[in-house]
Specification:
The chain is mainly alpha-helical and 208 residues long. 75% of the residues lie in helices and 8% in strands.
Length: 208
């Protein structure tokens, strides 16, 4: 049986009704937020799956080309020329907001590929390997961005779900129960006052 620590007055009844209204509105907003976050996360999961497939395919093509280059050019020559290839330029990690959740965005300058080695020392297999590995690097950046975003959204969904459940399963039923209790007590008091007033009137008439 519930134990109520609130005084059953009209002021507390109004206060409890306002709190119930606020709690229900809060639950609706959290539910909408959770739906949007889940939709966004599922979209990112699809993107991550697609990126992983592209990375695997491009990696496979790159390694096949690299193996052919090692065979046709010699591994030492391939390693020596590879050292002259320009390293990755700096990048920035920015953030965008998705329903209040800060998710990362990797910003880097896209430069046209330029060779630091002479074509007379290489062949098409080596060039294909270089281009494929550069493509893989870009895809890995994209995948890191997407996977990090999925993780952050998942954590926020979990937090939002917990808060929504607390309102739906605890706060809202508690306010409803409190309102029912106060309302019943006030109605009973009104009935008692009505019968008391009726008896007083009846006694007054008899005296007259």
């Amino acid at each position: 049986m519930a134990v109520y620590k609130i005084t059953p007055t009209k002021a507390n009844l109004i206060k409890s009704k306002n709190s119930l209204k606020f709690a229900k509105k809060g639950f609706e907003l959290l539910d909408k937020k959770r739906t949007v976050l889940i939709r966004e996360m599922m979209s990112l999961i699809d993107s991550a799956s697609s990126l992983q497939e592209r990375i695997e395919k491009t990696f496979s093509e790159a390694y096949d080309a690299l193996k052919l280059a090692n065979i046709t050019m010699g591994s030492e020559s391939v390693e020596e020329i590879a050292q002259s290839i320009e390293k990755e330029s700096d990048f920035q990690i920015l953030f965008k907001s998705v329903m209040g959740v800060e998710v990362p965005m990797i910003k880097r300058e896209e430069k046209p590929f330029t060779t630091e080695y002479g074509f007379f020392r290489t062949n098409s297999a080596f060039d294909k390997a270089v281009l494929s590995f550069i493509q893989v690097r870009g895809l890995i950046y994209e995948l890191a961005e997407v996977e990090n975003s999925v993780y952050k959204l998942a954590m926020e969904i979990k937090k939002t779900q917990k808060r929504a459940n607390a309102l739906d399963k605890i706060q809202i039923p508690r306010y409803e129960s409190t309102i029912k209790y106060i309302d019943e007590v006030l109605q009973e008091k009104e009935r008692e006052d009505f019968f008391r007033l009726k008896r007083v009137k009846s006694k007054t008439k008899k005296k007259k």
